[in-house]
Amino acid sequence: MNKITNFINSIKPYSPTILRIGLALVFLWFGTSQIIDPVAWFGFVPESAATLTGLTIANLVFLNGLFEIVFGTALLFGLFTRLSAFLLFVHILDIALIVGLDSIGIRDLGLSVATFAVFLNGADMLTLDSYNRK
Q1: Is 54 left (phi over 0), alpha (psi -120 to 50) or beta?
Q2: How many domains does the chain have?
Q3: Does residue 7 lie within any of the structural domains?
Q4: Which member of 12, 60, 90, 130 has the greatest number of CB atoms within 10 A?
Q5: Where are the alpha helices (DSSP H) in 37-126?
Q6: Position 64 in a domain
Q7: Are 98 and 48 a contacting pair, CB within 8 Å?
């Protein structure tokens, strides 16, 4: 048991990095999926979003996918970590609130809270932001 505790304690400083990278991969997967197969995502876009923006559902899906790819990539590399995490937090929280408290909405609420934790933490030791500060 002592070896397990020692191992966990030795990797504990990397927990913010693991969280940041894991979330970035989630956003990159969703963003890429929306670019590759936008039609599969049309049903998730509320009609009110198209009406309010004047954009087609296809354009909204594309722009959403692009947003998630750009800021997911920034989060992955830790470039503008705090800004990227904040924008993704607001983005996914908005989606969770629009979807409501069903299985998808609760999942997105959990992702938004985790993304908010990355925002609060800011740049961890393995980000380009930290590297640029040195």
Answers
A1: left
A2: 1
A3: no
A4: 60
A5: 47-53, 57-77, 81-99, 103-121
A6: yes
A7: no
For residue 124, what are its two tokens? 């961890």
> Could you tell me the CA-to-CA distances from 29 to 21, 75, 103 in Å, in that order?
12, 13, 19
What would the two tokens of residue 119 be? Answer: 């925002």
Q: For 12, phi and psi rounded to 5 degrees?
A: -55, -40
Q: Please answer whether residues 124 and 16 qualify as being in contact, where contact means their C-beta atoms are separated by less than 8 angstroms.
A: yes
pLDDT at residue 132 in the model: 85
Which structural domain, as residue segments, surrounds residue 94?
Answer: 16-133
| Nearest in space to 24 (alpha carbons), one of 83, 68, 80, 82 | 68
d(CA 96, CA 56): 22
Tallying the residues shown for the chain, one arrives at 134
Q: Is residue 11 part of a domain?
A: no
Handedness of CA 69, 70, 75, 77 (dihedral sign): positive
Query: What pLDDT is attached to residue 31?
Result: 98
pTM value surpassing 0.90: yes
Q: Tell me 114's DSSP state.
A: H
